[in-house]
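queue> pop job 88
queue> type: inverse folding (structure -> sequence)
queue> payload:
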């Protein structure tokens, strides 16, 4: 799966691997290398006899995009501790349960969450957080070429328009994701002298930085954007002395 497909899956709330069936599906997240024999015994007693369970080792670090995709999927499901059981239906994940002390009664009771009024809204917020996490991972691990950068930039702009994106998330995306991606494009195109392309990219980066700043200058991220804009202004002024 390429980065673009993965980001689109989260951004559009598509989570195909967890939501393709009409009945409940079950997924267990656990630590890499963990002995799951006792957990499987608990699950066999707590879940329906014909329950098919997917097991996923949750990486403790993010060294590849494959790690990031598993971690983002867990974030989108609402995983906060492992080992745990994620229960999903055709609309996606709706419950996360610790394995310790799991019983058929607990599983039955938790199914009420499938019809909770705030389910869709909470899912949308989790999916947004997962998409931002995956975006950060892409900036670290998948910027080898301009096509990758274009996908990252496009995703940044889409997530900035997400209806559930709050002020902090918008400033984070603008300052920590969109601005550095545009600056990387600019630096790769610069070869000792400005061209129309590099000038356009620099102006795009400045615009992203200023947008993050102007959302709210008094927040921590807003203040950082303000300082970075001033640093950039001084650097450009110095550079003009040698042009």
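queue> result:
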């Amino acid at each position: 799966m390429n980065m673009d497909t993965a980001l689109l899956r989260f951004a559009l709330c598509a989570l195909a691997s967890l939501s393709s069936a009409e009945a409940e599906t079950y997924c267990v997240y656990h630590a890499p290398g963990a002995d799951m024999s006792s957990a499987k015994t608990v699950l066999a007693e707590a879940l329906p006899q014909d329950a098919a369970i997917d097991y996923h080792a949750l990486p403790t670090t993010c060294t590849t995009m494959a790690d990031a995709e598993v971690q983002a999927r867990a974030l989108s499901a609402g995983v906060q501790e492992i080992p745990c059981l994620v229960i999903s239906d055709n609309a996606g994940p709706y419950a996360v349960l610790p394995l310790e002390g799991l019983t058929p009664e607990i599983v039955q009771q938790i199914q009420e969450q499938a019809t909770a009024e705030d389910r869709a809204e909470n899912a949308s917020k989790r999916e947004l957080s997962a998409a931002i996490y995956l975006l950060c991972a892409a900036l670290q691990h998948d910027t080898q070429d301009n096509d990758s950068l274009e996908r990252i930039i496009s995703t940044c702009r889409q997530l900035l328009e997400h209806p559930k994106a709050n002020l902090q998330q918008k400033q984070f995306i603008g300052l920590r994701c969109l601005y550095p991606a545009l600056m990387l494009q600019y630096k790769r195109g610069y070869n000792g002298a400005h061209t129309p392309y590099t000038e356009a990219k620099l102006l795009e980066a400045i615009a992203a930085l200023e947008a993050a700043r102007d959302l709210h200058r008094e927040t921590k991220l807003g203040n950082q954007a303000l300082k970075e804009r001033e640093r950039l202004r001084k650097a450009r002024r110095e550079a003009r002395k040698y042009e």
